[in-house]
Amino acid sequence: MISWFKQNRKALAQSSAVFAILVGSLIILVGYYDFSDADLGGLLFLTSLLCCIFVAKNTFDSVKESTHTVDFEGIVYGDTSVSSEELYTQLYKNSPVPYLIIDYDGHVKSANISAVRLLGSSQDKVKGINIFSRLQSDKLEHLDFLIEKYRNGVAVSDEMVMVKKPDKRESWALLSLFSCTSMVGQKIGLLTLVDITKQKKAEDAKSEFVSLASHQLRTPIAGMKWSAELLQMDNPETLTERQHKYIERLLISIKRMAVLVDDFLRVSRFELGTFQAEYRTISLVKLFEDIVSEQAQKVEQKKIIVKTFFDETLDEVVTDQNLLRMIVTNLYSNAVKYTREEGTIHLGFGRKNDNIIITVADNGMGIPAEDQDSIFSKLFRASNAVRDVPDGTGLGLYIVHEAVVVLKGNISFTTTENIGTTFEVVLPLELPDKD
To answer: Cα dist. 177→93, 115, 211 in Å?
Structure first.
């Protein structure tokens, strides 16, 4: 009880004062009031008394709330102002992320424990070094560009750099750098280096595997293919009809294996981000005619009608031939695979504004509505394709999509199940210089 009075002393004093003033005013008013009608006067007195109590109670509550708010804010701000400074100091010093404070020229003013460890030095030796001299990028001009951005007040975020250590070991990090002004008006920067050495080594190992596999896996496949073809050509009259069929099946299996290996290697390169476009002038008409020729045997077997439409004004364009061939080959071979016998395929390209529009349309099985959102996903095949055409890896359209992305284009499709599908690829148009 006593503690309650202490805690609410201010609110109680102010509410009591308000109550006393109001009651005093009421007594003065009653002294001058004629109570000839006792019932009315009594009612007025009671009503006024209740009003006085109500006003006094509101005053008490409002003063109490404001007092508690001020006390609470004082406690919060007082405690936080002390703990925040200590908290930020501890976070800066002991953070697992390397932090450095540098001046305008890149000289280290302060470094936390993680930064000292990443640089492979000691605290006293790190302070004062030029951090820019300890960093290296794949291209020298790229690092110069990042430094220039920092000096012009532009934030740098998640740029991969190599950190040079005194013991010559390599460490890789994601660099972020933000400039600000110190309390004395000096321009400084906060630099962070997120260590990604393990991830970089893993990516390099994957890249080396892809490079090795591209040679080592293709070599035995090519050897098997040549051996089977030589066996088929060497005195074919000595082979029985059954042996001829076995060799043909062997060649078909070898071809499927070669396609599968190529697809997996392409997927690996796309996922590693090592597939860079190599632009040069190519003939679109010749590229399309070559692709049509490659599928001619299957087209004849299924008696498919292929209608082509080539914009002759776009015969020569600047693009990556390998990526474009992947796109058209996969779309066209899918059209041939999923179009029923005596069906029709439309294949061609044209110009629209500053873009090349490549169209591949068929009247095949189409794509079910429930499968359309996943059609470009890796290893995904539509349910009707799995049912009717078991031979497939689900990598073709994924490779097409990734190749289109590398060429900075986009791909879309319209489809109706059991009626057909039309794929449209839009790529930026670049014409060769005629100088």
So the answer is: 18, 14, 35
Tell me which CATH homologous superfamily contains domain 97-195. PAS domain (3.30.450.20)
- Mention every residue, 6+ apart, whose C-beta is less than 8 A from residue 118: 98, 163, 171, 173, 193, 195
Q: Looking at domain 280-428, does it have CATH number 3.40.50.261?
A: no
Alpha helices in 273-390 (DSSP H): 284-294, 296-302, 321-338, 383-388
Q: Is the pTM of this model over 0.85?
A: no
Instruction: Give CA–CA dist 52/21, Å, rounded.
Output: 9
Please give the Cα distance from 375 to 133 (Å, whole number): 48
pLDDT of 362-404, one tens digit each?
998 999 999 999 999 877 888 888 888 877 778 889 889 988 9
SS3 sequence, 94-150? HCCCCEEEEECCCEEEEECHHHHHHHCCCHHHHCCCEHHHHEECCCHHHHHHHHHHH
Report helix, strand or coil for 361.
Answer: strand
Q: Specify whether the CB–CB gap between 277 and 392 falls below 8 A.
A: no
Segments making up each domain of the chain, as ranges: 2-92, 97-195, 212-272, 280-428
Question: Cα Rg for the chain, rounded, in angstroms?
Answer: 40
Interval 55-111: pLDDT, tens: 666 665 665 555 554 454 444 344 444 456 666 667 777 778 888 888 888 888 888
Site of tokens 């990556």 = 320
DSSP 20: H
Helices (H), 312-395: 321-338, 383-388
CA 75 to chain centre: 43
Tokens describing residue 238:
């000595």
